Amino acid sequence: MSSSHSLRALLLGLVLAGCSEPESVSFPDIAPADLGDWQPDFGEESDLGEPLEPVTPDTMLDYVDPFIGTGGLGFAYGGLTPAAQAPLGMVRVGPDTSEGSNYSTLIDRFSGYRAQDPNTRGFSHLHFVGTGVADYGNLRVLPTTREVSERPYRSWYATHQNQAAGPGWYRSELDEGEVGVELVAGIRSAIHHYTFGEAGEDNIVLIDPTSSLKDSGVEAATWSVDGTTFETELTYRGSYVGRTRPFTLWASIELSETPESVEIWDDEASQWSAVASGVDAPARLVFSGDEVVLKVGISFQSMEQARENRLEATSRDELLETTESAWKELLSRVLVEGGEELERTLFYTALYNCFRMPTRLDEAGRYRGLNGELHELTEGRYFTDLSLWDTYRTLHPLWTLIAPEAQRDALNSLIRMGEDGGFIPRWPAALSYTSGMEGEPAMVMFGESAAKGLDGVDYQRAWELFEPVADASAPEGGYDARRGVERYAELGWIPADEFSSAASNTLEWSVADYGLAQLTNHLGLTEESARFRERADSWKNIYREDEGFFWPRNADGSWAELRSKTAYNERSGIFVEGSAWHYRFYPLHDPEGLRDLMGAETMEAALDEFFEESRLFEITERTQLALPDPYYWHSNQPSIHSVSHYAALGRLDKLSEWTRAIQYSAYTPTPDGLPGNDDGGTMSAWFVWSAIGLYPVVGTNSYVPMPPLFPKITIRLEDSTLVIEAPGASRTVGKLVAADPFPETTAGQDINLVYTLEAFD
Question: What CATH code would you report for 363-446+459-472?
Answer without folding.
Answer: 1.20.1050.60
